[in-house]
Amino acid sequence: KDLGVSGPKPLPFFGNITQMFDKRVGIYSTISQWQKTYGRLFGVYLFRKPVLIITDPDVVKEVFVKNFSNFSDRHL
C-alpha cells in the first residue's frame, strides 16, 4: 500500500493466505476476483511476506525478459 500497489486487506500474521486457499472458492477464483477488483497488478501477503501478483502477459514478459537482471534474485 505504501508503494501505491492496491490489494485485498491482509489479516495480522496470516496475510491473505486464508483467503487464497479457501476451499469453498478456490485459489483461481479468488485471484480472478481480485484481478477484477484491483486490476492486472496487485499485492497480497503470504503470511508477512509481500507478494506482487502480475496477471498482464505484457508485464510478465517485461519482467522476465527485458528486465530479468533486476528480478533474477526474486522468487516465482
TrEMBL record:
InterPro entries named among the record's database cross-references: Cyt_P450, Cyt_P450_E_grp-I, Cyt_P450_sf, Cytochrome_P450_3A
Pfam families cross-referenced by the UniProt entry: p450
Record keywords, A-Z: Heme, Iron, Metal-binding, Oxidoreductase
One function term, GO molecular function aspect: oxidoreductase activity, acting on paired donors, with incorporation or reduction of molecular oxygen
Gene3D superfamilies referenced in this protein's UniProt entry, alphabetically: Cytochrome P450 (1.10.630.10)
Keyword Metal-binding assigned: yes
Keyword Oxidoreductase part of the UniProt annotation: yes
Membership in a protein family: Belongs to the cytochrome P450 family.
Protein name: Cytochrome P450
Source taxonomy: Eukaryota, Metazoa, Spiralia, Lophotrochozoa, Mollusca
